[in-house]
């Protein structure tokens, strides 16, 4: 069973919509309130990055199963400028926008699996999964 | 409108109306129209089709007001726009079909089709404009209402104020929070401000960043900030994100926040002994 939701991000309201879709699916899968908060926060970070750096993109949220475990997978896709320095972007406190610089490393800690793929001037795809324990 | 077309439409008016009424009934099964009573639906259909045939008999100015009033009433009753657009599409189709069947050669010409198109398009534009205008108006009013609820600063004791935050914080609201906070601190001569985030569903790095900036600004105008209403799950996500809130005091509930704010201003709440 695959439940997939697509949310287009092109304004700040898209971030809210993505987050609500994520919370709904996380609740349906059976995540507790702390994990729900982790998942929605992670979605919020990824969606905000899209809005901030790429202007527009997509958040896909789906249910996944692997080796008997259920989980939620978030895929953030954009065709923005890409990330210049992949190593530094995962360091705490590194920011190019004057923010806290905790977004991507934070998402990595909030979720279980984290995958970042980015090509300069092509776009960025981030996949993050949280497994139900 | 071409007088020939007008006359031929009026001649076949009854026929067109009857076919349309039959066709429009088929929409009835559609989603949004179901909670409207049968008589109501019937009456509105009749009125709508009458208005449409009136449009060819009257001047533009005259029927415009009439149609606008009709649309406004539908909007108030919550009829979907879909009813109007589909109704008009159907009306155009039926009119063209009915008139083609008359055998008049003119009724098969491009010119004739264009006349009919223009006539219906004008009406569609008018009605759709009414609908979208009313939606824009609603959105605007709701935005204003939201802004009023956005970020109030409430003085609770001398020198102590509370700012309860409820709902999503976007960039615009963050700006408002900062402004209201600083203005309020000066106006109420607050020494301690409590920011209550019980009602904020998600605290991500941007929200945290704005709160940190706001409290830093409050510090600059000589007051102190206490962050209250941090729910357990929010506390965990803040730690996971690696956000450093070590610089300013936090309390789990507004009550505890007020107690420590009173302490900071050398006061306390005591129970009166009889």
Automatic annotation (TrEMBL), chain A:
<feature type="domain" description="Histidine kinase/HSP90-like ATPase">
    <location>
        <begin position="34"/>
        <end position="133"/>
    </location>
</feature>
<keyword id="KW-0067">ATP-binding</keyword>
<keyword id="KW-0547">Nucleotide-binding</keyword>
<dbReference type="InterPro" id="IPR003594">
    <property type="entry name" value="HATPase_dom"/>
</dbReference>
<dbReference type="GO" id="GO:0005524">
    <property type="term" value="F:ATP binding"/>
</dbReference>
<protein>
    <submittedName>
        <fullName>ATP-binding protein</fullName>
    </submittedName>
</protein>
<dbReference type="Pfam" id="PF13581">
    <property type="entry name" value="HATPase_c_2"/>
</dbReference>
<dbReference type="InterPro" id="IPR036890">
    <property type="entry name" value="HATPase_C_sf"/>
</dbReference>
Automatic annotation (TrEMBL), chain B:
<dbReference type="InterPro" id="IPR051932">
    <property type="entry name" value="Bact_StressResp_Reg"/>
</dbReference>
<dbReference type="InterPro" id="IPR014792">
    <property type="entry name" value="RsbRA_N"/>
</dbReference>
<protein>
    <submittedName>
        <fullName>RsbT co-antagonist protein RsbRA</fullName>
    </submittedName>
</protein>
<dbReference type="Pfam" id="PF01740">
    <property type="entry name" value="STAS"/>
</dbReference>
<dbReference type="InterPro" id="IPR012292">
    <property type="entry name" value="Globin/Proto"/>
</dbReference>
<dbReference type="GO" id="GO:0020037">
    <property type="term" value="F:heme binding"/>
</dbReference>
<dbReference type="InterPro" id="IPR002645">
    <property type="entry name" value="STAS_dom"/>
</dbReference>
<feature type="domain" description="STAS">
    <location>
        <begin position="150"/>
        <end position="261"/>
    </location>
</feature>
<dbReference type="Pfam" id="PF08678">
    <property type="entry name" value="Rsbr_N"/>
</dbReference>
<dbReference type="InterPro" id="IPR036513">
    <property type="entry name" value="STAS_dom_sf"/>
</dbReference>
<dbReference type="GO" id="GO:0019825">
    <property type="term" value="F:oxygen binding"/>
</dbReference>
<keyword id="KW-0597">Phosphoprotein</keyword>
């Amino acid at each position: 069973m695959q439940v997939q939701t697509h949310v287009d991000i092109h304004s700040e309201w898209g971030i809210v919509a993505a987050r609500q879709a994520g919370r709904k699916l996380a609740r349906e899968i059976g995540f507790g309130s702390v994990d729900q908060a982790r998942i929605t926060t992670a979605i919020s970070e990824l969606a905000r990055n899209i809005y901030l750096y790429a202007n527009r993109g997509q958040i896909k949220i789906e249910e996944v199963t692997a080796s008997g475990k259920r989980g939620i997978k978030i895929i953030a896709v954009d065709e923005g400028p890409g990330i210049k320095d992949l190593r530094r972007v995962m360091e705490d406190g590194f920011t190019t926008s004057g923010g806290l610089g905790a977004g991507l490393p934070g998402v990595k800690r909030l979720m279980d699996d984290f995958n970042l793929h980015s090509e300069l001037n092509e776009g960025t795809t981030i996949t993050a999964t949280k497994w139900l324990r | 409108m071409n007088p020939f077309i007008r006359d031929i439409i009026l001649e076949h008016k009854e026929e067109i109306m009857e076919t349309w009424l039959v066709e429009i009934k088929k929409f009835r099964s559609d989603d949004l129209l179901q909670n409207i009573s049968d008589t109501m639906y019937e009456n509105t259909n009749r009125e709508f089709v009458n208005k449409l045939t009136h449009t060819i008999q009257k001047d533009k100015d005259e029927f415009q007001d009439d149609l606008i009033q009709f649309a406004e009433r539908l909007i108030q009753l919550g009829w979907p726009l879909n009813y109007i657009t589909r109704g008009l599409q159907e009306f155009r189709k039926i009119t063209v079909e009915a008139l083609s069947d008359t055998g008049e050669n003119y009724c098969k010409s491009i010119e004739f089709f264009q006349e009919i198109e223009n006539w219906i398009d004008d009406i569609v534009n008018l009605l759709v404009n009414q609908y979208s205008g009313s939606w824009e108006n609603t959105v605007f009013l709701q935005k204003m209402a939201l802004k009023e609820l956005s970020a109030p600063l409430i003085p609770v004791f001398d020198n102590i104020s509370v700012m309860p935050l409820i709902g999503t914080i976007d960039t615009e609201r963050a700006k408002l929070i900062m402004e209201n906070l600083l203005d309020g601190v000066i106006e109420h001569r607050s020494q301690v401000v409590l920011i209550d985030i019980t009602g904020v569903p998600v605290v991500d790095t941007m929200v945290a960043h704005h709160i940190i900036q706001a409290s830093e600004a409050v510090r600059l105008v000589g007051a102190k900030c206490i962050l209250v209403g941090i729910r357990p799950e929010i506390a965990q996500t803040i730690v996971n994100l690696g956000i450093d809130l070590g610089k300013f005091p936090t309390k789990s509930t507004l009550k505890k926040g007020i107690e420590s704010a009173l302490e900071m201003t050398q006061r306390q709440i005591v129970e009166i002994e009889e």
